[in-house]
TrEMBL record:
GO terms for biological process: response to antibiotic. It is found in: Cell membrane; Membrane. PANTHER family: NODULATION PROTEIN J. It is a multi-pass membrane protein. This is Transport permease protein. The keyword Transport applies. It comes from the Bacteria. It comes from Actinoalloteichus hymeniacidonis. GO terms for molecular function: ABC-type transporter activity. Belongs to the ABC-2 integral membrane protein family.
Length: 277
């Protein structure tokens, strides 16, 4: 009993009641995410790694066998042409997945966000920690995808290593605004179905993943330009094939970085609005 009282008193003394430093708070949030992920990673393998690989096999090796290298494929085999874009597609899809129901659950069902912000961790730190975790998840999944793609002979050179950070940036440029959306959502997450059906899937089909958008009708091309996936695919293919040029690269990075910054600011504000009573 004496030991129990002593331990409780020691914990009470250790608690300062002060807001943690930003880096320390992010590390604590990542630790909590990692503990959960270490126990449940198997349930995410199919959506995060296997699905993009299946697309690569079916379209890159299956349909790609019917497509000759041409100007439309940058002179590459279709499998090699498709692989960098599928890396980016996987990042966008995984980012969307991590930014929707897991975030809504933290507010609505599990309510663990309320528990976290009852500690010295602030809502803004929680939002940033969640975004950093999503970025790490995209990096892990991207590395796994590249390893499988390399074994399939879909990697055209070491330039594809630079495509990995471009894919993570693209995934985060899409995920950060969705995290803000999830923080503001009041219902049971029905709006996420529309997000996946009318935003995520059309992006994959019409934003230059499988063919250059110059093949689209001129009326549809501006729609492709505003999608993060098109900018990410252009960067990833440029890195993989060694065709990056300065001004287009700066333009793509600025657009994606702007989306990420706006999404991060909105997420912090909406987390604070929801969690500060």
């Amino acid at each position: 009993m004496v030991t129990s009282h002593t331990s409780t008193a020691a914990r009470a003394r250790a608690s300062t009641g002060r807001v943690s430093g930003f880096a320390a708070s992010i590390l604590l949030i990542l630790e909590g995410q990692w503990i959960w992920y270490r126990l449940n990673w198997r349930s995410t393998v199919i959506s995060s790694v296997l699905l993009p690989v299946l697309f690569l096999v079916a379209l890159g090796m299956g349909m790609g066998a019917l497509i000759e290298p041409s100007e439309a494929t940058a002179g590459m085999d279709y499998l090699a042409y498709l692989a960098p874009a599928m890396l980016v597609v996987g990042a966008v899809q995984n980012g969307a997945g991590e930014a929707t129901y897991p975030v809504l659950s933290g507010f609505k069902w599990q309510k663990n966000f309320w528990a976290v912000t009852a500690t010295p961790i602030t809502p803004a730190q929680l939002a940033c920690g969640k975004l950093v975790w999503i970025a790490l998840r995209l990096t892990f999944s991207g590395v796994a995808f590249l390893l499988v793609a390399a074994l399939m002979g879909a990697v055209s050179g070491l330039g594809v290593l630079l495509a990995l950070p471009f894919s993570v940036l693209t995934g985060m440029a899409f995920a950060a605004p969705v995290v803000a959306l999830a923080a503001a959502m009041k219902g049971e997450g029905d709006g996420f179905n529309a997000l996946f059906r009318f935003v995520v899937m059309p992006q994959m089909l019409f934003a230059g993943t499988f063919y250059p958008i110059s093949n689209l009708p001129e009326l549809l091309q501006p729609i492709a330009w505003i999608t993060p996936l098109w900018h990410g695919s252009e960067l990833a293919r440029g890195a993989a094939f060694g065709t990056l040029t300065l001004l287009p690269t700066v333009g793509h990075l600025t657009y994606l970085g702007g989306l990420l910054a706006i999404g991060t600011v909105l997420s912090c504000r909406l987390f604070r609005k929801q969690l500060v009573v």
